[in-house]
Structures are given as structure tokens and as C-alpha cells.
Amino acid sequence: MSRPAPRKPEYHKINKDLFVLTYGALVAQLCKDYEKDEDVNTYLDKMGYGIGTRLVEDFLARSCVGRCHSYSEITDIIAQVAFKMYLGITPSVTCNNSSRNEFSLILDKNPLVEFVEELPAGRSSLCYCNLLCGIIRGALEMVHLAADVTFLQDRLKGDSVTEIGITFLKKLDEKKYRRKK
Amino acid sequence: MVDAVLFEFLHTEMVAELWAHDSDLDPGPGGQKTSLLVLEGMGFRVGQALGERLPREMLAFREELDVLKFLCKDLWGAVFQKQMDSLRTNHQGTYVLQDSSFPLLVRMGSGLQYLEEAPKFLAFTCGLLRGTLSTLGIKSLVTASVAALPACKFQVVIQRS
Lengths: 181, 161
Fold this sequence. Notes:
B: four-stranded antiparallel beta sheet
């Protein structure tokens, strides 16, 4: 696949802003359409799921990930390859339990909230970045892994860090995650 | 660096979801119109915000035509990684911008098959153009038309008070 011609530096910046601004406009629109924070959160998750199911193909085509043998490896790939590729950040990964199926991604930086100083008034339960949870969940499901993905902590809500929790559930079928041939 | 495909994926999902949502509320043409307006409005807000973030040097335009050329070259290049294929004007405030391969339509295939669906995929971008123009001090009406995918035309009519 040929790479596009090198872009002027200004293009890079406008491009980054485009997604972040569009996302902000989407959240604002959803806040108009839905009174309850939970409904907006659900909708963002649902949209993220739809994106994730398609994004995973793009990811597999462009990355060189090999076969994974553990949830821990998969989580590392999400943090170090996928997040890096799409958002330019690398969350750190921690494992939260001894059965090694619960993990956290700690986001030090988060481009999605670059223009957001605080949650809108009256929206204290809004998970502003819930699209990300849906994306991860949808992508994992396409490689036959069921997982619960939620925000455990959120800087926008006053927590000290932003933390996404991934809990791997029973595999959807017995196939191991493998790179698409 | 946020990857360019994220915008495309988000846009596609927005079109699908907002469309379904408004169709549930009003299955007739009213619901469809609402969706188009909503998408256009979102594009407008984003266009305004993008316009505000452009470096000052970029914005020293001598005349209206320069602004439109900027949209065709620089804005289009930044947003869609390509330039508009042609720009025509009647020199009386109407401009037609033609893209022979509009990226947000390309995935839908080519020809006449999805013609009916095309407007949904153009509404946000019409708003984007209108919003950027607005920040640059130009009030306009922007519409789009598709004769055959993935080629489309954006018509910009400058509103003079």
C-alpha cells in the first residue's frame, strides 16, 4: 500500500483537531438529544462498538502483531500498538487480579479531551470518552474475545488519573486470537 | 498524532446512528431532514473551530476567490489528504467545487447504486465548509450534489447582506 505524500506540518495539526473537534460536537449533540448521562454514555459505547468492529480490520492490516497467547499480551498490544497507532499515546498497563483477566489502561495523556476543561454543567456522570470503551469492546469481539470495558477513573470527574478497565470474559469460541492471514 | 482514519470511521458511524435515531422519531421525510440538519450543524461547529485554529499567516486573503482556493487546496488537503479537483465560479458569489473522488463516498462504491444515501454523507462536510467560511468572515449557503459516486459537487453561494 503506498503511503500518501508527506503532509505539510499544518495539515497534521488540522487533522488531529478534526477528529477531536468532531467527537466534541458529537458529544454535545448527544447531550442535547438525551437528558440522562447514562443514556449518552450508552450511546457513545454503542457507537464505539460499531467503530471497533470495523477498526480492527484496519488495525490488523496495518500492524504486524503476531499470535497472542494471553490476555496480558493482548492488553499490551492494545496499549502499545493500537493506542499508539490511532491516538499517538501509550497508556500504561496494569493487571488487577491473580487470574489475570482484569487489566487497566492508565491514560496519562488523552487527545480526546484536549479542548475539554471540565464536564458540562449538570453532566457529572458523563463518561466523555466512552467511545473508546466501545471501540475496544467491538474490536475484541471481532477477534472472538468477549470483554467488559469501562472507565474506572476519569480525570474529568476529578479522579487523579484516567483509567480504562478491561475484563476478559469467557472466550466467544475456542479460537485463539491470531493475526488475520 | 491522531490517525486520519479515525475521523472517517467516526463520520460513518455518526451518519448511521443519527440517521437511525431520527428515523425512529420521525420515519417520514421530516426525520431525514432533521438528520441532515443535525449533521450539517455539527459540521458547521467543527468548521468554525478549525477555522479558529488556523495560523494567522494562512488567513491573509486578498479576495474572496483566494478564500475558496484555500478551501480547495489547504482545507481539503488537511481534512481529506487530497485537493479539490476543480473550482469554478460565476464571479458573482457562486462557486462550484468538484471532487471526482470524495473520500467519504469512496467506500460506498461507485456509480448510481447508493445515490439516495449520498446526501447523508455530504451534510457534515457542507457544514464544515460553511463553518470555516464563517470564521473567515464569509456568510454562505453550502449544498452538495452527486451525479454518480464517488464524484460530488459542493456549491457555495455567498450571502451578502
